[in-house]
Write a structure and sequence with these properties.
By secondary structure, the chain is of the alpha/beta class. It has 2 domains: about 10-185 and about 365-394, Glycogen Phosphorylase B (Rossmann fold, 3-Layer(aba) Sandwich); about 190-360, Rossmann fold, CATH 3.40.50.2000. About 45% of the residues lie in helices and about 15% in strands. It has 14 helices and 15 strands. The chain has helices at about 25-40, 80-95, 105-115, 130-135, 140-155, 165-170, 195-200, 225-235, 250-255, 270-280, 295-300, 330-340, 345-360, 365-394, and strands spanning about 10-15, 45-50, 60-65, 65-70, 75-80, 95-100, 120-125, 160, 180, 210-215, 240-245, 260-265, 280-285, 305-310, 325. The chain has a 7-stranded parallel beta sheet with strand order 3-2-1-6-7-8-9. Strands 12-11-10-13-14-15 form a 6-stranded parallel beta sheet, sandwiched between helices. α2 (about 80-95) packs across α3 (about 105-115) and α4 packs antiparallel against α5. It is elongated, with a radius of gyration of 22 Å. The two termini are about 30 Å apart. Residues about 1-5 have low confidence and may be disordered.
């Protein structure tokens, strides 16, 4: 068994992802944290994806699979002729375990390969696709999604789920072998020390409370709720400023709905860390997250979060202790929770401190050590099951 904190000597892992474009979304940020960990621990690995960086920009071995553009979403590509594309490379690499990070055609091809070659397959449930169908009220698509997910994830030895609310939902839909494995946060990158009063001055909001949202600007993040919350609070007080970091297809629509809000576009590194730490409240109304890395980043920055009680983003929040939890798709309740923090500085400061203390326990190394340990347990279980099949066949 691989012990926590060990280098997992000799382990070879093949990963499968919908995209490896750096900074594309929360999933890729998690995967690149994993890439760094694997390099530090000298664990041999390879990533398969329809989208990979140019050769000179790759941080580990990557294999681009053939793909076509998805007509409804230009940033997403559908893998094609996958089995043939991955087989030769996998045969040369000889992985001990396969880890899929998307239930797409690439992930399903990895499952088939694992079944044919007796290689255990595990998965991480990163994106709550079924909630998108529910969000757009397409019942047939939601049903199809759950049927497909059962087929994919019940074919895996384990499916890692980053939040307890989502694990409970998956279990209720008949998905088995679920294991809670949260995401971590880089405390060197996000910390209250990056706070700067100059940040508010730079954006013309000095003397105001900064209400921060970070994420892609898409309706699936329940940004209609955020826009209505903006309307409610803007009509009542002049000491607030909504700040949105991120970009996406609905930015112009939101700018019209939130004319006085500050739209700062996509940010990373020191700029993002400064924005977090210099804000007063983190507001995240999304109901479609499996985890919501941005919530933990805000907590690590010493900023109290408010999340919706649906999806996975609220899973790490203790109500009234490390954050506040609002009713989903309820702008009035979200506005009330924001005002509770703004009008009660001692409560806001207490929650901010507790949130920070919690974030400090969620290092990426600890999370990935647990993942490596789970790989070792999965390999032992696979060997045991293989012996059982041999005995039954004798």
């Amino acid at each position: 068994m691989v012990r926590e904190g060990s280098a997992a000597t000799g382990l070879k892992i093949a990963y499968f992802a919908g995209t490896m474009r750096p900074g594309h979304d929360g999933v890729t940020r998690v995967l690149y944290k994993l890439v760094d960990y694997l390099a530090e621990k000298r664990i041999e690995n390879i990533f398969f994806s329809p989208i990979v960086p140019e050769d000179d920009m790759q941080q580990t071995k990557m294999h681009a699979v053939p793909s076509i553009a998805f007509p409804l979403y230009k940033d997403y590509r559908i893998s094609i002729s996958v089995k043939k594309s991955i087989a030769e490379t996998l045969q040369g690499f000889k992985p001990d375990i396969l880890h899929i990070n998307s239930p797409c055609s690439l992930g399903y091809a990895a499952i088939r390969y694992g079944q044919e070659h007796d290689i255990p397959v595990v998965a991480t449930y990163h994106t709550h696709f079924a909630s998108y169908a529910k969000y757009y009220k397409v019942k047939a698509l939601e049903t199809l999604s759950w049927n497909y997910f059962r087929k994919v994830y019940n074919s895996c030895a384990r499916t890692f789920v980053p939040s307890e609310p989502i694990r409970n939902e998956l279990a209720a839909h008949g998905i088995k072998n679920l294991e809670y494995l949260p995401h971590g946060v880089d405390m060197a990158s996000f910390d209250p020390q990056y706070a700067s009063s100059q940040w508010k001055a730079d954006h013309g909001i000095q003397g105001k409370h900064a209400l921060l949202f970070v994420g892609r600007l898409v309706w699936e993040k329940d940004l209609a709720t955020l826009a209505e919350t903006y309307r409610i609070l803007s009509a009542q007080r002049d000491d607030i400023a909504f700040v949105l970091i991120g970009d996406g297809p609905i930015r112009q629509d939101l700018e019209k709905l939130m004319p006085e809000a500050k739209f700062l576009g996509y940010q990373q590194g020191k700029d993002l860390a400064r924005a977090y730490a210099s804000s007063d409240v983190f507001v995240f109304p999304s109901t479609t997250e499996t985890f919501g890395n941005v919530t933990l980043e805000a907590m690590a920055s010493g900023v109290p979060p408010i999340c919706a009680r649906e999806g996975g983003a609220y899973g790490i929040i203790q109500q009234g202790k490390t954050g506040l939890i609002a009713q989903p798709r309820d702008p009035a309740d979200l506005a009330e929770k924001i005002e509770l923090l703004l009008d009660n500085p001692p409560l806001r400061e207490d929650i901010a401190q507790r949130a920070y203390d919690f974030a400090r326990t969620q290092s990426w190394d600890k999370i990935f050590d647990r993942l490596m340990n789970a790989y070792g347990e999965t390999l032992l279980e696979n060997k045991h099951n293989h012996r059982q099949r041999q005995m039954e066949a004798a």
